[in-house]
Amino acid sequence: MNITEPKFGVEELELVKRCLDSKWVTQGPLTSEFERLFAMRHAVEHAMATTSCTAALHLAALALQLQCGDEVVVPAFTWVTSAHAAEYVGAKAVFSDVNLSTFNIDPVALEAAITPRTRAVVVVHLFGKAAPMDEIMAIAKRHGIAVIEDAACAVGTTYNDRPIGAIGDLGCFSFHPRKVITTGEGGMVTTNRDDLANRVKCLRNHGATGPAFGADPSKPYTMSTFDMLGFNLRLSDIQAAVGVAQMARLDSILAERRRLALRYSEMLAGLDEITVPVDDAGHTYQSYVTRLSRDDRAKRNEIMEHLADRGIQTRPGTHAVHRLGYYAKKYGLQPEQFPNACRAEDTTITLPIFPGMTDQQQTEVVKAIRSKLG
Ligand SMILES: Cc1ncc(COP(=O)(O)O)c(C=O)c1O
């Protein structure tokens, strides 16, 4: 049993065919349609498709003009590119510990990590559960720093009934196949700020800033000028075609994920050795991440091997990023720093969850866990 499986149907095929038949396959009308649907669903002014969430985070850091000498606070338990975004532009990723129950950044630790050099915080809505945005926005306001929401896992997630991705200055989403909806690879930057949206659009398109001042755009010989050092981070219309079809499935995918997640939590209740995820109404369960109730990495590994032997794929939640070579070496970070991030990396088990998963498959997973725990 796979840890996840995307859900596709004839709608994806039909839209990809429409794209190919049109002969327009790079960023074009289907990307615009995908962006329009995404912006509407997340109640945000601008949604700009890009090649991945990592590219979206990079674009966000560039749009905020973060640079050498700046510090960016990042949770210590996350995917490594939440931190890379700062490093790509020469800024320094400074880690902050997480809340072990929610796996999201701890606002107290965040505020303690802020220095006069801090320019931004990357807030991660890990596994589809919103971070405590009221506290985080209040801290950001108090210190005058920008907020980038890493919403890679959080398509459709809400915080107090409000879609995430537009609460901070910029939101960054992923359409990797392990995420809620997928375009193979892909990402989206969201913002309500026109200045940031203009910079993102320009930077993802080689830095093109439109016709030079005074040039007549209607003339066939008029070309764009390039005032910024940009990149090619455009999504293709072939991928956007899949994205448009996936947006139509979003609500049913989210409903199915929640149903399965709540069923897991009910079935695992009573197993003292396993801690189930903390639920809230806006949690979309991009991943269903359980934790061993005691700090026993060896036991966690044994359970994972036991499940693998029965053909059930699992993964640890994610990384304690400060223990990874690049950051540990560059900043002399010690493995025992950020103890909750370490405990989270060492004791989490992500169980299979995907639209189309049957109750029988789910029962099989729970039975396998019970048989190991006796
Ligand atoms: C929290 C987080 N941020 C960023 C990313 C990067 O996303 P992508 O693979 O689209 O670059 C991921 C992907 O796993 C993630 O989980």
TrEMBL record:
Q: Which organism is it from?
A: Candidatus Accumulibacter proximus
Q: Is the keyword Repeat in the record?
A: no
Indicate the residues that form the catalytic site. K179
| Residue numbers carrying N6-(pyridoxal phosphate)lysine | K179
Q: Which GO terms describe its biological process?
A: polysaccharide biosynthetic process
Q: Which family does it belong to?
A: Belongs to the DegT/DnrJ/EryC1 family.
The identity of this protein, by name, is: DegT/DnrJ/EryC1/StrS family aminotransferase
Q: Give the highest taxon in the source lineage.
A: Bacteria
